Amino acid sequence: MRALLVAGARPNFMKVAPVLRALKAAGDEAILVHTGQHYDYEMSGAFFRDLDLPEPDYYLNVGSGSHAVQTARVMEAFEPVLLESRPDWVVLVGDVNSTIACALVAAKLKETTGARIAHVEAGLRSHDWRMPEEVNRVLTDRLSDLLLLPSRDALPNLISEGLSEDRIAFAGNVMIDTLHAQLSAARALDVPSRYGVDRGDCVVVTLHRPSNVDERSSLAQILEALAEIAADRPVVFPIHPRTARNVATFGLEAALSRLNVVEPLGYRDMLGLVEGAGVVLTDSGGLQEETTVLGVPCVTLREQTERPITIEQGTNRLAPWPLTVEGIVASYRQAVASRQDTWVVPEGWDGRAALRIVEALHEHEGSLSLASPVTAERT
Ligand code: UD1
């Protein structure tokens, strides 16, 4: 079996690495495509190093741009790659622009290439169409032949959209495979001490959602809340390039003065920092999952989450929406107080998801028709 894996942006690299390894261990051929959606050393290169990823077989070098430009560039560059490499499967992960771009290309070339599409992390829904990632998720699932669920609660989302159950397989959370593989090395780095904070004491913050950082008033309000929290505990803030750029554009540099603002961290450093944190405040999807496995209380600065299992079973909570300084600080205090709570690690977040993914690819190889993945009754 030959599988082509696509990675484009920071959250993709830790999902692709275990699948690549599991394919190779099973004697399958793996082709790695990096679209170049993220290209800085901090956003991409450091992840290849930490995760021991090989040089990509193809680097598409698409870079930044508007959603349309970025998506179109990936599509243009990916088409010849797919035609040349002729895999049995195109394996897509997550919900970034590179994911939907490659799904569109592969779906339209399916008759020509015979390559089927598998979506890892299928069925997550925020039900918020203002999020570019929600558009990417729903459409990628609709175009995919094999839908690999990260958690069982994603199944009803797909069924309610008419997707056929025989194309859906439970995989579990492949990002957690990487967490398990890297945790002891990350712990050994003793990252909190690098920032002069004790284990279990500091607050780790990440922010990059357009809804939080692209408007001055929203960003200013979150930074004000963080400054208040910093009076209670040290705040370490690895700042995303989008957020850093907007802080400068809006002239908000002074609002960062009480925070320990650092460059975006590589995978292992970030895991070491989060694992040793007291509380995490974030608008990232992946951190909601990682904190759930690590038992670190998490406050999610969003209106809703496409990962509700991290709230129902894990250590996550949503800050009251619309966000206010008081609401964020109150959620932070609740999270600190919840530190001793028991929590459950969701089923399949066990370090073995990549094995189940490769098993499912083998099982469905040749068994799925190239026709529409939607159930007959509903079309
Ligand atoms: C993207 C994903 C988001 C994911 C996030 C993780 C989409 C729609 N969004 O958002 O789901 O959670 O990545 O980081 O695909 N930039 C750099 N260096 C880089 C990459 C980006 O400086 O290596 C800057 C560019 O100015 C760019 C901005 O960051 O315009 C945003 O990057 P982009 O890839 O468009 O989206 P993200 O906000 O990173």
Q: How do the helices and strands line up, and which of them pair or pack?
A:
Blueprint: E1 2-7, H1 10-25, E2 29-34, H2 41-50, E3 58-59, H3 67-85, E4 89-93, H4 97-108, H5 110-113, E5 116-120, H6 132-143, E6 146-149, H7 155-160, E7 168-170, H8 174-188, H9 191-194, E8 203-206, H10 210-213, H11 216-230, E9 235-238, H12 241-249, E10 260-262, H13 267-275, E11 279-282, H14 285-294, E12 298-300, H15 309-312, E13 316-318, H16 325-337, H17 353-364
Parallel strand pairs: 1-2, 1-4, 2-3, 4-5, 5-6, 6-7, 8-9, 8-11, 9-10, 11-12, 12-13
Helix pairs in contact: 1-8, 1-17, 3-4, 4-6, 8-13, 11-16
Bound molecules: uridine-diphosphate-N-acetylglucosamine.
Describe the structure.
51% of the residues are buried. Helix 8 crosses helix 13 and helix 11 crosses helix 16 (325-337). The two termini are 31 Å apart. Helix 7 (155-160) links the parallel strand 6 and strand 7. The chain has 17 helices and 13 strands. 46% of the residues lie in helices and 14% in strands. It folds into 2 domains: 2-173 and 349-364, Glycogen Phosphorylase B (Rossmann fold), CATH 3.40.50.2000; 183-338, Glycogen Phosphorylase B (Rossmann fold, 3-Layer(aba) Sandwich). The strands form 2 sheets. The protein has a 7-stranded parallel beta sheet with strand order 3-2-1-4-5-6-7, with helices on both faces. It has a 6-stranded parallel beta sheet with strand order 10-9-8-11-12-13, sandwiched between helices. The longest helix is centred in the first third of the chain and has 19 residues, at 67-85. The mean pLDDT is 96. The protein has 379 residues and is of the alpha/beta class. Uridine-diphosphate-N-acetylglucosamine binds at residues 9-11, 37-40, 43-44, 64, 95-97, 132-133, 208, 240-242, 245.
